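Recall that a protein's primary structure is simply its ordered list of amino acids. Everything else, from secondary elements to tertiary packing, is in principle encoded there. The following example makes that idea concrete.
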Amino acid sequence: MISNKRGAVELSITTIVVVVIGITLLTLGLIWVNNIFDRLSGTTGGAFEKADAQIENILGAGSDESPYRLVPGTVTLKPGDSTRVVAVFSNSFEGDISGVTVTVASVDSTKVNCEAGDRGGTSSKSYMVKSATALKIPIFVKVDKNSGVGDYLCRITSPGDFGGHVSSGTVELLTVKVRK
């Protein structure tokens, strides 16, 4: 009888060890799969944002209704990441337009920093846009690595009137979505 009890104890210990190893492997497997899905969703989200921006750029260029716009109008970034957005001025009007600039201001500069990409800082160089062409002024967006999850804004202002086709001081808001 003693040997039967000893066999039962050994079988129980073996079962417990197998169950613990199984749960550990299952947990590691689930964490691995979760990481893969997180990376895939970030990659596909970024790809769709870029595709939408390119479609908007192609279809919106030269429109009388929107001579000044941001492409894309919304970006999604993780803390510490950065990206480039462009302010597009489409001159589909007769005659060249000079003095085209943008002024960039971050609404919460401690979390998100936006600056004119052609020379850095808050104001771009002054440009001339020839008739039937488009000008793209780069704007760099950087999210602070200590930034929390949330939506932030950058204010992009066109100080000129774009040849009378855009009211002076037109503001476009860039939405920066910060996600983990």
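The CA atoms of residues 78 and 180 lie 5 Å apart. The helical segments are 2-60.
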